[in-house]
Specification:
By secondary structure, this protein is α+β, with helices and mostly antiparallel strands. Helices cover 21% and strands 32% of the residues. The termini are far apart.
């Protein structure tokens, strides 16, 4: 059944590299705040930085819950499920932080991911718990293809249109927490 790991072993790294989708969970500190779970896709949007650190490329989307929650409290869980014949669920718990375009780390990190026209941030997660479980109830499914709709949407937008969209949709979480710290100083280019 489930096992606790000290580090991301070679087998776990291989499992992460094959994951076509994963889920990110965060929550605000307020008791009445909403817990958020976001699906993340794109096999080229996740990277292992070292034995206890992962990062993913966060693309512009319709909300900014993860960014807002991380700015408030840094708590984050990433969950990966196997949809192949070998059932497995992997959870990575830790503290996350966002690296934004223009930040000193941006250039060193962004090259670790595939090319996407609308990167919003890179979420870096320092892991403090790595655990797997059986995944016996997760269905076996086949990947037909990755979707490129978000990239195509971004390619049709001008930098001012993207900035306007982000001001409208990505400035605050649904609970009112601030999300984008650089919205005035680092426009989309």
């Amino acid at each position: 059944m489930g096992k606790l790991y000290e580090v991301l072993t070679p087998a776990l790294r291989a499992f992460l590299a094959e994951a076509p989708v994963f889920f990110v969970a965060t929550a605000p500190l307020a008791a009445d705040g909403r817990v958020n779970v976001s699906p993340k896709g794109g096999m080229d949007t996740l990277t292992v930085l070292d034995d206890t650190t992962v990062a993913y490329l966060d693309l512009i989307g319709s909300g900014a819950e993860t960014i807002a929650h991380l700015r408030e409290n840094r708590r984050i869980t990433l969950m990966f499920c196997s949809f192949t014949a070998r059932p497995k669920t992997l959870r990575l718990y830790g503290e996350g932080r966002c690296v934004f375009p223009g930040d000193p780390e941006w250039d060193a990190l962004v090259g670790r991911f595939g090319s996407h026209p609308i990167p919003r941030s890179i979420v870096v997660v320092s892991l403090d718990r790595i655990t797997d479980s059986c995944g016996f109830t997760v269905p076996e499914m086949a990947l037909v293809r990755e979707r490129d709709l978000q990239d195509k949407w971004g390619e049709r937008k001008t930098p001012p249109q993207l900035e306007s969209y982000m001001r409208e949709k990505n400035s605050r979480s649904i609970d009112g927490l601030p999300a984008r710290p650089h919205q005035e100083s680092a426009p989309i280019t």
